[in-house]
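[Solved] Which block belongs to which protein?

Original post:
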Amino acid sequence: MSEKEKDSKSAWQTAQVGQLLIKEEVPVKAYILSVLHSPEAADEVFQQVAVIALEKADDFELGTNFRTWAMSIGRFACLEYIRKRSGKAFAASELIDMLAEESGASQEDPHQLMAALHECLEQVPTDSRRVLFLRYVEGKPVDKIANFISRTLQGTYAFIKRLKAKIRECVERKTGFSVVPFEEGAL
């Protein structure tokens, strides 16, 4: 194949990916929004997803699931967005990773997993959600959280473990997926 033919094929592939991006914009943005909970952030991240998808258009195999491919790019773009905004590694990405990769579910339903996680977190009492936020979003050490909520260190570890188990069970009920729990050291 000549260089001109390769360039022509690449341009055609990029155009196809561009059309698929337009077609799948709503579900991909919905997935991003379910992770970031900010319409402005979702728009910004979707633009980044579009740029990456077009740059990697030759990597996409036409005829396969474009939405899954774009959501995978979106997941990594969300994590990068969060890391840049927080100035440190975003510990809650462990939860996203657990649901998206270790659940045994296909990558075709990351939105279903995130929607279930969101619903399940909404059912957690506000004070308990605050504990999870301190641990997994702000990355606070468990001993600091124990002092903040006036519990012993062991009691706080047990409390967080129970919260995670309840959320995992809730996500499993809502999705039918088997979600692998965090490793013990991941508290």
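(Second protein starts here: sequence line, then its structure tokens.)
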Amino acid sequence: MTINPSMRRGSKGQPEFRQPPRWAESLLISLLRPRDQETIPGDLLEEYREDRLPPLGHARADFWYIRQVFIIACFRPFEGGAMKRILLFLCFFTFAATTWLNLMEITMHRPGFALRICIAVLLALQSLSTILFLIFRGKKRARGILMIGGFLITLFGISAVVSILKAAHFEGYVLLIGLGLILQGVITIVTLVSMRGADKLSVTCQ
């Protein structure tokens, strides 16, 4: 009798299908839009059981499944329209820029560096929180907080641009970061408002 590698015997002697790692399945579902949370995991599970598990064995098939989830995690956030992709790019840019500024402030210790570090940390947290929200489609309460943050960084970006244009010593990187913050703040608000509208529409359709 040939034993299907995708099946095993349960505690009562009944055949049970092998499952990929539960944490990977949960992560995959959290990355997907509600309308995709059944079809994509279902298709991936079918390929795991029928095409990967028999020739590869359990450990290598699990590795294949985890790799597919990782690929989806890398590319899925950039789907959903140009605004979302632009927002993600701006958030990554701001996070990298503020991290660099923090390192510079810690190294140089110029007057007022503590306040500038705190501001840079807050900007980095706003950017990182927005990235995580877009990837995992966070809760409605987080959406409201991020919209407030988007409004505040817009004001901060405008203030930075006005200040550097009036300053005697022009610093181009400050102007670039300020313009980036204005764009990020505006697009954050627009994107989150459109996501809220899309969620309400999907609930109505159901």
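Accepted answer:
You had them paired correctly. Confirming on the second one: The first helix runs from residue 22 to 31.
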